[in-house]
Design goal:
The protein has 274 residues and is of the alpha+beta class. Helices cover 24% and strands 27% of the residues. Bound molecules: flavin-adenine dinucleotide. Pfam families: DAO.
């Protein structure tokens, strides 16, 4: 955000999904666009924001460990490692024994291997948001909370192209030719205000914080773990599982997308379960 930009938030900043994100940043994804975006985000969160504002985003470079519980997943991780080489992201495919040496608490008996990315890390979502707002305000941007967008005025220009003319709020309209829809899972609703279909589906996401577990802190630096395609953790089919150190020392927070949980229907102003 820079001079002249206005961020309208219907409630308080981070009140959307950001407040309960695990805050993991893993750099290796199958798409090159994502890898570049994540590299940029890592630079901003781990270094540039702090240099610019003097505030800390809560960045901890504790490394990411992707766990392969079948051969196909391990092959995928080998491909990710090759992609990482092209983009300068250091990563290592580890055998179960090497994984055990890195993370002694883990039972590696039924693992095919892991992908270790030493420069992955975690951030504090609220801290990152506060720091971003400080940087944006210093460049002349404005943040207005408790100000829902209620409509987007669109006009058709001389060439028949539909263009944004203004954003409507309860406190009056803001004339603008440009709107960035950053309403997260509510983006479809905001898109509809301008007659735009945003192809987005919200899914339930389970989240558990454990009691203290002895030994979780490894070498003073906890690791972020992520396991995909397993079915032994939550009793149901888990698509995707992320573990990270929680706010409490020696405890973990654990989140997974579980297909039985299904989709979420979103009401106009909040969450409502389908
Ligand atoms: C349990 C969990 C764990 C996660 N873990 C990770 C992780 O480890 N790493 C990772 O990268 N991602 C993770 N995610 C995903 C991540 O949280 C989201 O991608 C991210 O928070 C999205 O941020 P956002 O700013 O796009 O959306 P949001 O934070 O949802 O912000 C959208 C904002 O738009 C506002 N809004 C909606 N409608 C209007 C309106 N009409 N007018 C004005 N304002 C409006 C809302 O109030 C909200 O504050 C996780 C998500 C969950 C649920």
């Amino acid at each position: 955000m820079s001079e002249g930009a206005v961020l309208l938030e219907r409630e308080r900043l981070t009140s959307g999904t950001t407040w309960h994100t695990a805050g993991l940043l893993w750099q290796l994804r199958p798409s090159d666009v994502e890898v570049e975006l994540l590299a940029h985000t890592r630079r901003v969160v781990s270094r540039e924001l702090e240099e610019e504002t003097g505030l800390h985003t809560g960045w901890i470079q504790n490394g990411g460990l992707f766990i392969a519980s079948n051969r196909q997943r391990l092959d995928e991780y080998k491909r990710l490692m090759s992609l990482g080489k092209a983009y300068g992201v250091e990563s290592h495919v580890l055998s179960p024994a090497e994984t055990k040496a890195l993370y002694p608490l883990m039972n590696v008996d039924d693992l095919y291997g892991t992908l270790y990315v030493p420069q992955d890390g975690t951030m504090d979502p609220a801290g990152t948001c506060t720091t971003l707002v400080r940087a944006a305000a210093a460049r002349g941007a404005q943040v207005i909370e408790n100000c829902p967008v209620t409509g987007i005025r669109v006009r058709t220009d001389d060439f028949g192209v539909r263009r944004v003319a203004a954003v409507e709020t309860q406190h009056g309209p803001i004339q603008t030719p440009c709107v960035v829809n950053c309403a997260g899972v509510w983006a479809s609703a905001v898109g509809r205000m301008a007659g735009v279909k945003v192809p987005l589906v919200a899914m339930h996401h389970a989240y558990v914080v454990t009691e203290r577990i002895e030994g979780i802190q490894v070498g003073g630096l906890p690791l972020a773990l992520r396991q995909a395609g397993v079915d032994r953790w939550a009793g149901g089919q888990v698509w995707d599982l992320a573990l990270k150190p929680s706010g409490a020392p020696s405890a973990l927070s654990l989140g997974g997308l579980v297909c039985e949980m299904g989709m979420v229907a979103l009401g106009g102003t909040g969450w409502c379960q389908s």
